Each structure stands twice: as C-alpha cells, then as structure tokens.
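Format is sequence with structure; example below:
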Amino acid sequence: MRPIDHFFSLLAQIEKSQQSPELTLKRETTDHLIHEFSHLLTPVIGGPASEDLCFRTLERIHGKNPELLQKLGSIAAFFLDEYDDTMDLDEEDWAEIQETLGDASEEMHIDTLTTLMGELLTVGKLK
C-alpha cells in the first residue's frame, strides 16, 4: 500500500467513527492526523509548513461534514504528485496550497517547488 493510500484509509476510518453529522475530533485524533500528514509531507515542504497546513485545514472543516476530511488526503496527494482531477478541492484549499508553497519556498528544493508551481498552473490555480 502506498503511503497516500494508507493516509486516505486513515481518513476514512476517522470519518466513519464520527457519530455526528458535524466533524468534531478529539485532541488525540487531531494530533495523530497532524503527525501522519506531516510525516507524508515533511520531505517535500518541511515539518512546520506541513503541520501548519494540516492544522489550518482542520480548523476550516471543523463542525462541517465529516466527509471533508478527504480534503486532507487530496491536499497531501497534490504535494506528493499523486493528485488527480477526481479529488475534490475548492478555492480555499487551492489558496491554502498556494500560501503554503509561498511560505515554504525558501526551505524547498528548487526542482520540487518548480514542479509544484507547474502543477498549480496546469490545474489553473496559480494566481
């Protein structure tokens, strides 16, 4: 199983465990998600940037439909070059991705940054 598939599986498991139509996560679940997300993306954008991106995304979707947890997987997939057009990201998600790339650009390898910026351009989200 690829790391991104494992992460999507974790998100689905957490989504199914929600007993309310509104997303509410326990502190240990939030910490675990941030850790797993960061573990995936630290080699690409660095630890602080990946933790911040996950935390901000969780804040945005808190109290909404638990299915929105899948956004974390789609965002991670983008940074891991695993993104496809069946994944559902909205304008706020793309803005977060773009902001993260700007914030992490000094720490990233130039080839990786160039590739990710090219992908943003390809999907029509580079502003």
Q: What stands out?
A: The mean pLDDT is 93. The helical segments are 3-17, 27-45, 47-61, 70-79, 91-104, 110-122. The chain is about 70% helix and 0% strand.
